[in-house]
């Protein structure tokens, strides 16, 4: 049976036997399983590559292959992405957000599998990025294309995109609650109670799929036993501020590094320079290799001296002050390394790097404080975990996701109070200096903008060319007042565009401009339209979005504005026409 016939019969059967809500719930479960399976494949593939490449490395020797591996991985990922899948890597999540906002939630089918290969090559060979963003792209693409296959509208496809993203994060971290909140906070613009259930189902199925196939393979392999003490709160306040400032540095370092790479002449130069710089960073600071979660495990378990072992210059040093210096340098270099990886052509995201940097910030804060012996000792594990939450909150502007994600993956529910406190302080500190998240900033750097509210999102769905009014009668600039008076008699509008023989708008004349002279016989034959016309308060371009159009309406105070395209007059747009189109969109969306 052809696939199209099967889908058609399936859709007919579901219309007869299943409600829309039941159908969406079933699809969310399927998407959760498939996305969970994709996450398992990616995680297993990356770990297999890393183990194969580094298992023979000796701690006491300089492992010069660290210099070559990242360049090889980035080059391979770019070649595979461009010439096989026609889908070059990058951050991924900003593109998903833009597709949801501007392209009716239609994610290209190739993204269902392309990022599995390119990110595995990138991270497996030491690219200093995370797997979470590629998996979110993969899960989102699975959700979008499932919705398209089932003939669902854009709103329901968006919900399924959220289901795929939640399942992917849940499968990677084993944190179904945090994954759902991430999907709501970062991916989806709004959520209702009915939409919340499919997200839960998809997240649970993604986590279960991962558990069944690879067991409870947690990112952090320690048992958290420390108790929260209220006496630590002043230090958590200071930590929250530091996390906010580090988040600000992280975002700016990533953006400036990527912009610097974009300034290079060719992609070959980007891969050579980016891969070389990254390779030398990894050579001198091996903890930067890959995602880096093993380093955080060593710090939390009190094995901080072991992180120096694979560095050719620091391995023989056991001075605690050198550990602090080494980790501070990693904090400074990790965002740059992540940007080099992605900007050079690799595939990955800044999700894991933000957690990684946050963990090191928290450890350095508590370790330094304890080293100097001032006041009460601070628990290293608690501050490491809480700072992970703080930096993630600041970088991604997702405080709730950070709180629940860290609490779930560590079992550190005892830390809910400091997690909430530090997440909030970090978020406030970062947004004081930088309103937008890194994802929004990256889109703005490309000339793309996300709606800031639901109203703005609805407005941007309205095409300016669809609300043009063409019943305004034009008049030539060389015409006389008598000709315009004749048009007034048959026109239902009080604005008359002045258009020349090339259909270019020269100006406008309103009924108020001629009211006093239009019946004066002596002036009807002597006054020309070019002497009466004046410029409109603003001009709309056919290529502008509706948000820009509304800004021009507000700044000019006008109720009607002309629209031109390539210098040609098309018609007028009125506020009332826009409001009517907005109302219809709103009603249609509520019905969906």
From TrEMBL:
InterPro entries in the cross-refs: CBS_dom (IPR000644), CBS_dom_sf (IPR046342), Cl-channel_core (IPR014743), ClC (IPR001807), ClC-type_chloride_channel (IPR050368)
GO molecular function, one term: chloride channel activity
UniProt xrefs under Gene3D superfamilies: CBS-domain, Clc chloride channel
Domain CBS, chain residue ranges per copy: 468-526, 533-590
Entry keywords, A to Z: CBS domain, Chloride, Chloride channel, Ion channel, Ion transport, Membrane, Transmembrane, Transmembrane helix, Transport
GO CC terms of this entry: chloride channel complex
Keyword Cell division: no
Transmembrane segments: 21-41, 61-81, 112-131, 159-184, 196-214, 234-250, 271-289, 321-343, 350-368, 380-406, 413-433
Compartments where found: Membrane
Membrane topology note: Multi-pass membrane protein
Chief location category: membrane
Keyword Ion transport: yes
CDD domains: Voltage_gated_ClC
Name this protein carries in UniProt: Chloride channel protein, CIC family
Species per Swiss-Prot/TrEMBL record: Algoriphagus halophilus
């Amino acid at each position: 049976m052809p696939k199209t016939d099967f889908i058609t019969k399936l859709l007919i059967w579901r219309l007869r036997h299943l409600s829309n809500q039941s159908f969406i719930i079933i699809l969310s479960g399927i998407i959760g399983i498939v996305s969970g399976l994709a996450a398992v494949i990616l995680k297993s593939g990356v770990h297999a590559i890393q183990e194969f490449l580094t298992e023979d490395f000796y701690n006491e020797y300089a492992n010069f292959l660290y210099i070559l591996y990242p360049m090889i991985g980035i080059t391979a990922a770019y070649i595979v992405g461009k010439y096989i899948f026609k889908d070059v890597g990058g951050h991924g999540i900003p593109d998903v957000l833009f597709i949801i906002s501007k392209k009716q939630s239609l994610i290209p089918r190739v993204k269902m599998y392309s990022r599995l290969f390119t990110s595995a090559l990138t991270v497996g060979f030491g690219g200093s990025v995370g797997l979470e963003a590629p998996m979110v792209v993969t899960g989102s693409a699975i959700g979008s294309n499932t919705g398209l296959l089932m003939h669902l509208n854009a709103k329901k496809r968006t919900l399924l995109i959220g289901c795929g993203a939640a399942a992917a994060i849940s499968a990677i971290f084993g944190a179904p609650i945090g994954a759902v909140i991430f999907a709501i906070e970062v991916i989806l613009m709004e959520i209702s109670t009915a939409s919340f259930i499919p997200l839960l189902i998809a997240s649970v199925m993604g986590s279960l799929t991962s558990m069944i196939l690879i067991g409870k393979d947690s990112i952090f392999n320690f048992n958290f036993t420390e108790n929260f003490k209220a006496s630590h709160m002043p230090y958590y306040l200071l930590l929250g501020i530091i996390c906010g400032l580090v988040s600000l540095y992280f975002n700016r370092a990533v953006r400036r590094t990527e912009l610097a790479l974009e300034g290079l002449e060719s992609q070959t130069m980007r891969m050579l320079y980016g891969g070389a710089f990254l390779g030398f960073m990894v050579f001198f600071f091996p903890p930067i290799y890959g995602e880096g979660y093993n380093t955080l495990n060593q710090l939390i378990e009190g094995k901080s001296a072991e992180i120096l072992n694979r560095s050719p210059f620091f391995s023989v040093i056991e001075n605690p002050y050198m550990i602090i210096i080494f980790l501070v340098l990693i904090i400074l270099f990790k965002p740059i390394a992540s940007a080099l990886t992605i900007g050079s052509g690799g595939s990955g995201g800044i999700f894991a790097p933000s957690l990684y940097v946050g963990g090191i910030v928290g450890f350095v804060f508590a370790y330094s404080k304890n080293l100097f012996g001032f006041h009460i000792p601070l628990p290293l594990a608690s501050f490491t975990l809480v700072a992970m939450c703080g930096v993630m909150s600041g970088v991604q502007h997702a405080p709730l996701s950070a709180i629940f994600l860290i609490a779930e993956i560590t079992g550190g529910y005892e830390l809910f109070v400091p997690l909430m406190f530090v997440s909030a302080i970090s978020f406030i500190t970062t947004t004081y200096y930088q309103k937008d998240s890194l994802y929004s900033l990256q889109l703005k750097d490309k000339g793309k903008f996300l709606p800031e509210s639901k109203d703005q999102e609805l407005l941007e769905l309205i095409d300016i060319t669809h609300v043009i009014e063409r019943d305004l009668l034009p008049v030539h600039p060389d015409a006389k007042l008598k000709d315009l008076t004749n048009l007034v008699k048959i026109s239902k509008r009080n604005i008359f565009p002045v258009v020349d023989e090339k259909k270019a708008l020269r100006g406008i004349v309103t009924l108020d401009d001629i009211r006093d002279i239009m019946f004066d016989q002596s002036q009807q034959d002597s006054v020309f339209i070019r002497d009466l016309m004046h410029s409109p308060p603003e001009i709309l371009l056919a290529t502008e979005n509706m948000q820009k159009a509304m800004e021009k309406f507000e700044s000019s105070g006008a109720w009607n504005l002309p629209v031109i395209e390539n210098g040609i007059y098309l018609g007028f747009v009125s506020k009332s026409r826009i409001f009517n189109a907005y109302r219809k969109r709103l009603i249609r969306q509520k019905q969906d």
